[in-house]
Amino acid sequence: xxxxxxxxxxxxxxxxxxxxxxxxxxxxxxxxxxxxxxxxxxxxxxxxxxxxxxxxxxxxxxxxxxxxxxxxxxxxxxxxxxxxxxxxxxxxxxxxxxxxxxxxxxxxxxxxxxxxxxxxxxxxxxxxxxxxxxxxxxxxxxxxxxxxxxxxxxxxxxxxxxxxxxxxxxxxxxxxxxxxxxxxxxxxxxxxxxxxxxxxxxxxxxxxxxxxxxxxxxxxxxxxxxxxxxxxxxxxxxxxxxxxxxxxxxxxxxxxxxxxxxxxxxxxxxxxxxxxxxxxxxxxxxxxxxxxxxxxxxxxxxxxxxxxxxxxxxxxxxxxxxxxxxxxxxxxxxxxxxxxxxxxxxxxxxxxxxxxxxxxxxxxxxxxxxxxxxxxxxxxxxxxxxxxxxxxxxxxxxxxxxxxxxxxxxxxxxxxxxxxxxxxxxxxx
Length: 429
Description:
Main location: cytoplasm
Subcellular location: Cytoplasm
Number of strands: 18
Oligomer: single chain
Enzyme class: ligase
Pfam families: ATP_bind_3
Family: Belongs to the tRNA(Ile)-lysidine synthase family.
Distance between the termini: 28 Å
């Protein structure tokens, strides 16, 4: 049989093996991928169970440049042997594989959550080492339904009830779940059609785990109903994420440490993250305070930030650091992180220099086209009680200080959002 063909022998609708064309259509939803060559591999996490092993099989027939990662948590006797067995099965399918070992998890509290966090961390590190930007995960329709019911039982927010997204991006890696619309029975049927064996994890039968109890309770009809409900919340989350993406694209962040917005966002959490970023605060303002501000926009000072009308600087609003809330000056040194907003690099070996807010001295720099309230909060170089330079404005910087800069690098970045625009949720089973 040609290696790019997958047998499709459905025993009944919805339970047959997955055809090559069907899987290719699922992958099209994630957009274009780099060239299919060894320099641009796609990653896949494989536990050895039917779900992830089937995903690896499908990906290998869809794309040659692939690398699998098998994680050995070391939580039970024989896990190393299972990992080695899974690696050998992947190699037999002509899939390069790396076995990743996690140490010292046994005996920890909240074991499943701890193991999950450790697994994602070691997978992200391995992907970075191999130049992988996309990692595929084997979550399927059954997992999605279980996740929804678990979150619903805990009183999750509508955002949480949307459950898993088809795609989730982080600053360094994109996680893909192409099988979220596929019933687990079809994944097993696909492997059986190819005479591929898999590992059954005994923990999948332990009723001490909430997910196992839900899985044993749920039948095909319950799963379908649950996925429809999750899909409704998923569509709502996508609309909110798309609105957030449009707003993020519309704002302007200035290296002087302020933001210009044509309008406030609808999401208090999003405004709170921007507020925390600009103010350098450890925590954002309360969501209730920001919700009131969004409902009735007005100039205000709150949590180290100041919001005011842009006026002659354009339509909308400016969010800046409140100069009066900035602490005293700090001695200048290489690596100084001033006000949780600006990083010092290439600090000159000059005794007696410190960094502090420009403050009232900003009146000397009104020739710069910045709002006065922004000028007062920019970092300045002080010697004693006198300002000797303002790096952000390019003022007073000696040519004898090559590489010196005070750059805007706040503690919180809008690129660190845990919620990214997701691909359209699916309710198909």
